[in-house]
Amino acid sequence: xxxKTGDGKPRLMLMGQRRSGKSSISSVVFHKLPPSETLYLxxxxxxxxxxxxxxxxxxxxxxxxxxxxxxxxFDPENLFDExxxxxxxxxxxxxxxxxxxxxxxxxxxxxxxxxxxxxxVFVHKVDGLSDDYRGDTFRDIIQRVQDELSDNNYENPPxxxxxxxxxxxxxxxxxxxxxxxxxxxxxxxxxxxxxxCSNSRIEKAYLFDVLSKIYIATDTSPTDIGSYAICSDxxxxxxxxxxxxxxxxxxxxxxxxxxxxGLEETGNQDADSVITMDRKAHNYLYLKEINKYANPSTILNxxxxxxxxxxxxxxxxxxxxxxxRKPLIDHNxxxxxxxxxxxxxx
Length: 346
Ligand code: GDP
Prior knowledge:
Elements: E1 11-16, H1 22-31, E2 48-51, E3 59-62, H2 76-80, E4 83-91, H3 97-113, E5 118-124, H4 131-151, E6 159-164, H5 170-180, H6 186-200, E7 204-209, E8 214-218, H7 225-245, E9 251-254, E10 262-265, E11 272-276, E12 284-289, H8 296-301, E13 311-317, H9 326-343
Parallel strand pairs: 1-3, 1-4, 4-5, 5-6
Antiparallel strand pairs: 2-3, 7-8, 7-13, 9-10, 11-12, 12-13
The structure holds guanosine-5'-diphosphate (GDP).
C-alpha cells in the first residue's frame, strides 16, 4: 500500500555515506556482478538513475554520500515523489556515528513530508565482523537511531533494520523483504502459497523473480536462511542449463531415483523440474516457471508492472519422493497459476 504508483512502478532509492557499498549492492543484486569484483568499482560520485530489468522495473537512485539531500539544491518533489522505499546503507565496519546522524535527519524530514515512504536500514558489510561483535553492532545502531529520534519526539518511527553483506544471501533476503512490502497483493499471494503447500505436502514454497533472485512471496511457515539459499542456488543451475540450451527449448531435469539426473525436452511449455538435492534423496526441489508462455497481457501485468521476464515457483519437499505425486502437484500448481492471474488482472 505504501508504493507510490505514478506510472505503476514502485521505486527504491539507495542512499548512504560514500563507500558504504551502494554501487556494490546494486551491481551484485541487479547485474550479477561477482561480489569480489566490487573491489574495482568506482565509488558513487553522482546521482545515478538506473532502470533495473527485473520483475518490477524499479529504479535505484544511487546517491553520492557526501551531498546533503535535504538541502535547497535538491528538488524534493522530483526526488521523493514516486519513491516506495528508501534504503539507507550503513557501513558496519566503519565509524558509523555520522552516518546515523544523517540517517536521522533524513527520517525526520521524510516523516514530516513523505510519511508513506518505507525507511529500510541496511547495516552492511557484516561479513567482516565476528558473530558476537556483529550482534552488538547491530543492536547499537538500532538503539542509537531510536534514541536520537525519540529525543526529537519521534517514537516508533516506521524504520526496519537488516544485517546485510554482498558475500552471502543476506543482501537478497533483505531486498526481498523490502520489495514485498511494496506489493499490495502480498497477503493474497501468501494465502495462495499456503494452500498450495498444504494441498501438495510441500514444506516451503517461494515465488521468485528469477533474474534478480528476489523472492516476492513465500508461504507463512517459518523461513530458515538455508532454504532460501538452496532455492537460489538451484535457480543458478537452471539459468546455466537454460543458457546452454535456450529458454524456448527448455529441458526438464528430472530425477526420481537417488542422485540420478535425467534430461528430457518439454517443448514449448512452461518448464518444470524436480530434482533431489542429495544422494540419499532426502530432500526434493520442484521448480516451475510461472508465466513464460502466458499471453503477453498477462505477462505484463502479473505484478501490475512491466519488464517482467518471468517468475518461478520453487518448492522444497522432504523425505518421501514426490515422483508418484507429481501429477497431483502439477495440477495444484496449475490451479495456483490460474489464481495468480486473478490476483493480477489487467
Ligand atoms: P559506494 O560509494 O556507496 O557506492 O560504495 P562501493 O559500492 O563503491 O563500495 C565500497 C567498497 O566496499 C568496495 O571496495 C566494495 O568491495 C566494498 N563492499 C561493498 N559491500 C561489501 C560487503 O558486503 N562486505 C564487504 N566486506 N565489503 C563490501
